[in-house]
Design a protein that fits this description.
CATH topology: Spore Coat Polysaccharide Biosynthesis Protein SpsA, Chain A
Number of helices: 7
CATH class: Alpha Beta
Order of helices and strands: EHEHEHEHEEHEHEEH
Shape: globular
Strand content: 15-25%
Helix content: 25-40%
Number of domains: 1
CATH architecture: Alpha-Beta Complex
Structural class: alpha/beta
CATH superfamily: Spore Coat Polysaccharide Biosynthesis Protein SpsA, Chain A
Length: about 230
């Protein structure tokens, strides 16, 4: 029997695209379930989710917000042999999943990467610069074996969780620590190239300069914590 794949999504005000993203995943992958966590959307996202009638789709609506904790809630409700994560507003990246599944025959976790041959980034100059700088810092402090610590689009064998569990606080920086931990524990990591699409209108990350730079600061703090955390 084919192995089951669980894809985790998180949403906050994604009514304009979430149905497209969900349909794309179901049409691309066989034997797949989607676990979606919504952080109290107010734009009609929940109403759209309630119309989806598929036994392999389940969603959780909560009052709190936070990318890392949303991922953890999704993770503990997965049933798949493979577990993955992708941005809910990038359905155009879903076609990579079949190639990623093939790579899991010989690897423990497969990442989509902007910083290997064939990868790229079409976002704003400010976001491209900040991403490159944070990844340079990650490679400097945590090691250069991984080229893209921050794309967070991945598939992994469920068994990876025996060697490292995400410490789910903060924003996307939790994934940096998770990658470093499983790398230290000998997991085989593969990076496949992808091109990051342009910023979506209304991006939560770039909603204000203050939020953008405060998130960046939290990434740098988390990288140092990751390097020196004993567990």
């Amino acid at each position: 029997m084919d192995k089951k794949t669980s894809i985790i999504l998180s949403t906050y005000n994604e009514a304009f695209i979430i149905k497209t993203s969900i349909d794309k995943i179901f049409s691309t992958l066989d034997n797949v379930e989607i676990i979606l966590v919504d952080d109290n959307s107010v734009d009609g996202t929940l109403e759209i989710l309630k119309t989806i009638n598929n036994k392999n789709f389940k969603f959780y609506s909560r009052k709190s917000r936070g990318l890392a904790s949303a991922f953890l809630l999704g993770l503990i409700n997965t049933n798949g042999d493979y577990i993955g994560w992708t941005d809910s507003n990038m359905p155009q990246l879903t076609h990579h999943f079949n190639e990623m599944i093939k790579k899991l025959e010989t690897h423990d976790i497969v990442l989509l990467s902007r910083y290997v041959d064939g990868g790229g980034d079409q976002r704003s100059v400010m976001r491209i610069f900040s991403s490159k700088f944070i990844n340079f810092f990650c490679r400097l402090i945590l090691g250069g074996e991984i080229k893209d610590y921050t794309s967070s689009i991945f598939l992994m064998r469920k068994e990876v969780l025996k060697f490292g569990v995400p410490i789910a606080y903060g924003h996307g920086e939790f994934f940096i620590e998770f990658l470093y931990k499983i790398k230290k524990n000998g997991m085989k990591i593969c990076e496949l190239p992808y091109v990051q699409p342009p910023d979506q209108e209304g991006s939560k990350t770039t909603s204000s300069f203050f939020r953008f730079f405060s998130l960046g600061f939290s990434y740098f703090i988390r990288i140092f914590i990751t390097r020196f955390r004993k567990n």
